[in-house]
Amino acid sequence: MTYGNGGIGDNYAFDGMYCNLDRIVSQDEEDERRLSQLSREKLKLKLMKHLAKYSNHEDVLFHATRYLLKEQKNNLILNYLKKEELPNFYKDVVNQRDALQILIRAFFINVVGSELDYFEYNRLEELVVKVSENKDRETAYSRVTEIRSLIYDIVDYKSEREQLKLPLDIVETKNLLSACRISLLLSDFLNKHVNYQSEVNERTKKEFAYEISRPLENAKLANGKSYIARWKARHLHTLEYYASAEIGRGLRKLQAIDISVDIESYKLAAIEVCLDYEY
Question: Which residues of 169-178 are buried (b: 16+ CB within 10 A; e: fewer)?
């Protein structure tokens, strides 16, 4: 029997039988491969059924994009927390149905030191409804500015009535507003229709481009704090911005599909992209 590179013994099995040992696959591996293929086919059928109701390329692209982002929603949240330097405990809150109310009530209890009373909470509820409906298609950044104004308005009122110790903790306040922003981005993504999201995303991109185009300034703010160049632009992003590099490639592949092909071919191409990024 010969051993070594290219020797006949490399492929010798037993009793004069030969095979390529490198290509032997265990039963477990074969079963896993078949299950994976079956899972892929089931997912393909599911996606075909889901996209069957849409008759134009824009809707198919929107829902294929939504699928990719929804599949990695937890990663989107974690990427956002990392970029915004937020503590990880926020990840369990920002995606909840009443995330804004939970975040702001906790802020008043733990940071301000005074719980919202009945009338203050009603004001909060009214604002949450307003920024969630977002009839004017404002960016998440603009809506968080409204939340900030309400918080400071209530804090000022409480400070006079209850003699609270101010100023507020800057880091805690920044963290709250940042958490509110991702909550709005997620709520828009999960609950709004394609036209709404397209309009808000387009407005966000336009405002970002405008902020980036403005000349850099070296100035002091009215309160004496240093001016941070393009601060607003740093927070004017759509949810897709926080996708991983891998999913980002998938989103670009979806965008690159030829829209001149017939709708059924377009759907199949979009589905194939989605299947390559199955979680």
Answer: eeeebebbbb
8 A C-beta contact, residue 54 and residue 226: no
Count the helices and strands in the chain (H runs, E runs). 10, 2
Query: CA angle at residue 263 from 261 to 266, to 5 degrees?
Result: 65
Contact 239, 76 (CB under 8 A): yes
Amino acid at 71: E
**Distance, CA of 228 to CA of 78 (rounded, Å):** 25
Is 271:64 a contact under the CB 8 Å cutoff?
A: yes
Tokens of residue 269, six digits: 């191409």
Q: Is 12 helix (H, G, I), strand (E, B) or coil?
A: strand
**N- to C-terminal Cα distance for the chain?**
47
Phi, psi of 19 (to 5 degrees): -160, 165
Two structure tokens written together for 185: 């981005």
| DSSP per-residue codes, 68-88 | HHHHTHHHHHHHHHHHHT--G
Q: What is the dihedral of CA 99, 103, 109, 113, to 10 degrees?
A: -160
For the segment 200-252, what is each residue's pLDDT rounded down to a tens digit?
A: 999 999 999 988 887 766 545 555 555 555 678 888 999 989 988 888 888 89
Q: pLDDT, tens digit, for every residue of 37-63?
A: 556 677 788 888 888 888 889 999 988
Q: Which residues pair with 14 in a beta bridge?
A: 17
The tokens for 57 are: 């390329």
Please list, in sequence order, all residues whose beta carbon lies within 8 angstroms of the beta carbon of residue 60, skipping any fewer than 6 positions away: 51, 54, 263, 266, 267, 270
Q: Is the dihedral of CA 187, 193, 196, 201 positive or negative?
A: positive
Q: What is the pTM of this model?
A: 0.76
Q: Where are the alpha helices (DSSP H) in 52-139?
A: 57-71, 73-84, 99-107, 118-133
